[in-house]
Structure formats: C-alpha cells, structure tokens
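Contributing new records

If you add data, match the layout below exactly. Sequence lines come first and carry their own label; structure lines follow with theirs. Keep one chain per record. Anything else will be rejected by the validation script.
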Amino acid sequence: MVKSSKNSFLCTNCGEVFNKWNGRCPSCGSWNSLIENKLSPRAKDDSLAKEIIPEPLSNSKLDKSTIKLRIDQLNNIFGEGIIRGSVSLIAGAPGSGKTTLLLQLANYLDPNIKILYVSAEESVKQIYLKLKRLKITNKNLFIASETSADDIAKTISTKKYDLVVVDSIQTISTYLVGSQTGSVSQITNSASLIISSAKESNVATLMIGHITKDGFIAGPKVLEHLVDSVFQFEGDKYGTFKILKAIKNRFGSVNQVVIFEMTSMGLNIAKNPSETLLKERIYSDGSIVHATIEGNQAILVEIQALVNKSTFGYPKRTAAGFDANRLNLLIAMLEKRTKLRLSDKDIFINVVGGINIKDPSADLAVCMAIASGATSKKLTKDFVVFGEVGLSGEIRHVPQIQTRFDESIKMHFDGVIGPKTNIKNKLYHDQKDLRQTLIDYLK
C-alpha cells in the first residue's frame, strides 16, 4: 500500500529538513530560508527492492578504463587520464577560464572520443564563437544548451558519448524538486541524477561549479562528497597564470597541479612559470624572490613591499596575493623582535603575477621585504628566500626544501636563505633567527 508522506521544510542555506515552518532556521540561524519541500510518495513494503548481485574480482570488466589526454600533466592530475564512469567537479571564480579549459580538452583528446558539452548558461551560438576564437575544430565535439538535469541524465544514459561536460551544476534543475534553481535541494538532486546516470552508463562526466565570494564551492558540502574528484581552478581574473589543483581525487594524488598561461588564444601549459614571473623584475630594495610550492612543483615569485610614513593616525596595511591577517601578525612580530619601528608606517605587499600564496614558507620572504623597504637596503646578493617565522622570531622548517633549492639554482640565483636543513651546499644559507638574518643579509 502506497501512502503519501507529509511535506517537510528545507533550509536553503544549510540544507537541514524540519517538520514545520519557522521564520528562522533552528540549525544555522538564517532568517526566511525555509521553503516547502514536497516529497514524493514512498512505498511502505519492499516490493520495489531487489537483491544485490556483486561482481567477482576476477571479472575483467572491473579493470578501470581511461580516456587518455595528449598532455602528461593533465593525465597525472586526473589519475592516468579521465576515468570512464567517473564524475569530477571543477570549480573556480567567474571569468577564471573554466569554460575555456574544458572546451580546450577537445584538442587534447583522441579525435575518435565523442564529447558532449552541455551549457546551461550560454547559447549554442555563444559557445560556437568561443570555439572559433580558440580554433577548436574537433568533429566529435557536440554542443547543446539545456537546463534540465533530467534531460541531461537521459542523454548520458544513451551511451552515445564518451565524455559529457555540464556547465554548470548550479544553473540546472530537476522536475523532481519544486524549489528554485541554485537552491540546496536542486543542486543535490540534480547532481545525484547525473552521477547515477554516469555510473550506470560508464560515461566520464565533468561538471563546472561556481564558488562563493569567500572562495568556497557554492551549494551544499554534500556535493563534494558525491563526486569522485574536486578540482579548483585558481588565478587572478586579470593575471597571466592559472592553476588547476586537486582538492579531492579518488583516482590520483591531491599533490598534483597543472599551471596554465592565459593567452589571447586560450590556455597553454606553462613550461617555465618561474622565468616568466621574474622576467621584468628589477633588483631593488623591498623586492625579495620567494620559492613557493604548488602541488609538487616549486615556483619562484617576486614579493614586493612598499613602506611609507603614514599621513593619518591609523597606518594602512594592504596585501595582494598574501593573507592580510598573516601580514598584520608578521608586522607585530617584527616590531617586537627587531629594531624596526613600523607602528607609524603604511605597508603594502604585492605578489607579482597574480599568484595567491597560502604557503607558510612565505613568512621569511615577506619579513625581509618589509625590512628591506623600511630601511631602503637591498640583499647583499640576489638570494631566494623561504621559511616559516614563529612569533619568537625563529625560522622554522618547511617541506620540500630540496625542490625549492633546485629550482633556485636552475634559475641561476646567487644562493638560498632558508631554515636549518641537512642540505650541504655552499649556496644554501641556513638560518635560525630572523633578527640575525636581517643583519647579515641586508646592506
């Protein structure tokens, strides 16, 4: 006997479900976020249930099949290629180049691979103009404009395509849910429909995702749990370099990254990002070169500091490409542990090239750039600097020191300043104390 269940109320902010409506969500505290969630009838008996038939390990069908790409870096980040039947989420800021990246995949795949690109945000004509600009002429690339998750899932189940791209998961909806497009229930149910269809049909699927102003993937956290892989596409909107990094990957390592260079013809794999970032550098006070790590690759970036006497009562501290809270902490530590007086100084930090550094090893480079800018002194030689700095002024160990050192020497720098290590090389200057380092290497 089938009996309709009572309607419930869903919070569009946190996704919690309640039996009755409230003006304020009891779970997350947001106001006017509860909407009626009409549930479909469910059977009370087990007439629709069926026995699970497992696959033996000896079954050859269990061998994973991959769609190979012509670029090794992309193969590595996906996990030896794009796995058939896998579902990956690629998230990034508006204008970062997500659509460009996934359209260009057509140039990196075997011409016999059939690709369906479904756009819920742009018309077929708009996508066609992008393909023309990017000079993509793959005859097995098909374009469609559709906002129905049910229709997309049905198309995937036909098995006519080897790879399906959905742009984007936040702009499609399913008939099963009555809430508006982009709500928690719509995103969850639409993603579940597409994932189920992709798994059953063994079709590789890539979904584009939006991010919020805080930098998190828009929608419920369950979306990241549903998919096999989550990739973040980062980079300043007007910057040259874009970085594709793995946040979650069931088929490969999360330490893999691919660095792209944005050109008028689209995205190209950056062969030597360090050289490009330092090409226009001027060796002066306030300029320090830092070796940061993206995935398993070292990149040399220039950190610039401008220190001026403040004309107002409250000094201004601004950072581009570096955490502003971390900057304030380092400034306070410099005043306490060194002879620098920065309480009446405006301090501006800039990471050249639009690179956003989250690596703690940038502490020492930022401190030396501030000290160099405040005293108008340059480094005694053209060194590369890295190391985490504690609140007592000590320089702490950071991972992958050898990788950073090798990249510095490859770029022909005079030496490296970093924390204590077992590297035995006359070009490596290991340090324990920030104050002594400033005295020894700033002239």
